[in-house]
Design a protein that fits this description.
This protein is mostly helical and about 110 residues long. The chain contains four helices and no strands.
């Protein structure tokens, strides 16, 4: 019985170690991408934050689902524009493009929480 228990403990430890390693590798990948694409990361973080805000407004009854759908469409269009800009610039977004995207995000942001 103790041999069986020992095998289970070893298996559990191996699985736990694998999970920790996978998490660490995923973190490294995100950090590397963030390091090489800081403008895209900033734009995409803002879009994700706006998405959370929209969902929260709907959940609290402060915004209708129709209003939320419109704002989500606007955010989706901004994200598509960001991807198109990056595709034409070797995966990067220029400062001027980031400013333009942020201005568009500001317009959507103003409509959240009214």
């Amino acid at each position: 019985m103790s041999k069986y228990r020992s095998v289970l403990i070893t298996a559990a430890a191996t699985i736990a170690l694998g999970a920790v390693s996978a998490t660490a590798l995923a973190g490294d990948h995100d950090t590397r991408w963030q390091k090489h694409h800081p403008r895209r990361e900033q734009v995409n973080n803002r879009l994700a934050n706006q998405n959370r805000r929209i969902h929260q407004e709907v959940k609290e009854g402060e915004m209708s689902r129709a209003q939320a759908a419109t704002l989500h469409r606007d955010d989706h269009a901004i994200r598509q524009e960001e991807r198109t800009m990056a595709r034409t610039n070797g995966g990067h977004v220029t400062r001027a493009e980031q400013r333009a995207l942020n201005q568009q995000e500001n317009q959507v942001s103003k409509q959240i929480g009214r």
